[in-house]
Design goal:
With about 240 residues, this protein is an alpha/beta fold. It is built from eight helices and seven strands; from the N terminus they run βαβαβαβαβααβααβ. The chain has one domain: Rossmann fold. A seven-stranded parallel β-sheet has the order 3-2-1-4-5-6-7, sandwiched between helices. Helix 2 links the parallel strand 2 and strand 3. Helix 1 packs parallel to helix 2, helix 1 crosses helix 8 and helix 4 runs parallel beside helix 6. The chain is globular. The model has no long low-confidence stretch (mean pLDDT about 95).
């Protein structure tokens, strides 16, 4: 039986690293990317190889850049032929008043969060279409569903990811390729490290589950989606403890 391969973008830390470990623990070979944390990414890849015996290909580059994505997939095709599952996890946030948001900041958030999902999915699809199977899992946010004050660019970028998810699911369903998104709430990652203890407590009190989510919980859901029937497609699944 062919060993399956998953590509996870933004895999050096947080949700991406947790997803990588989950897939590795189930015996999947991995292609892992990040934009600048080479040492952290290589350390993760070595850990997963040592712990689970899987092959880990690492790639340092901006997945919002077309040339970088093509180069990444060229290496993937040489090593694995293609990817069976694509997890579009690369993402950044930008907090502040909309009136103080520069065009450069807007474009950077959109490029990292939305354009990367477009470019990576476009490169992954020829192999999936040939196999007539595959799964694309987009890591989104509840703010892409309802919007967040002082996070206009981030909310817009994740809203775009959600729209892409639903549209592409309809286009690819005849080819047995599933496209779903996980709309994360407050997950305990570096992205939310900006909050003080007092702020974290206030946020947790707003969440019916009474706490921040864990990266491992997002990883478990991502893996479950990868293994589901392709009839489950086009869904924006909120992982938020009942928050929104």
């Amino acid at each position: 039986m062919k060993c399956r391969t998953a590509l996870i973008t933004g895999a050096a830390r947080g949700i991406g690293a947790a997803i990588a470990e989950k897939f590795a623990s189930e015996g999947w070979n991995l292609a892992l990317t990040c934009i600048r944390s080479r040492e952290r990414l290589e350390t993760l890849a070595q850990k997963l190889h040592t712990s689970y015996g899987v092959t880990c290909l690492t790639f340092l580059g901006d997945m919002g850049d077309e040339t970088a994505v093509r180069n990444c997939f060229k290496e993937i095709e040489e090593r694995f032929a293609g990817v069976d599952v694509l997890v579009n996890n690369a993402g950044i946030s930008k907090t502040g008043l909309f009136t103080e948001l520069s065009l450069e900041e807007w474009e950077r958030v959109m490029r990292t969060n939305s354009t990367s999902a477009f470019l990576c999915t476009r490169q992954a699809l020829p192999y999936m279409l040939k196999q007539k199977s595959g799964s694309v899992i987009n890591i989104s946010s509840v703010w892409g569903c309802v919007g967040a004050s002082c996070e206009a660019a981030y909310s817009a970028s994740k809203g775009a990811v959600n729209g892409l998810t639903m549209a592409l699911a309809k286009e690819l369903a005849p080819s047995r390729i599933a496209v779903n998104a996980i709309a994360c709430g407050a997950i305990d990652t570096d992205m939310n490290a900006c909050f003080s203890e007092e702020e974290r407590t206030c946020i947790a009190e707003e969440i019916p589950a009474g706490r921040f989510g864990r990266p491992k919980e997002a990883a478990e859901l991502a893996y479950a989606l990868a293994c589901q029937t392709p009839y489950l497609t086009g869904q924006i699944i909120r992982l938020d403890g009942g928050w929104i």
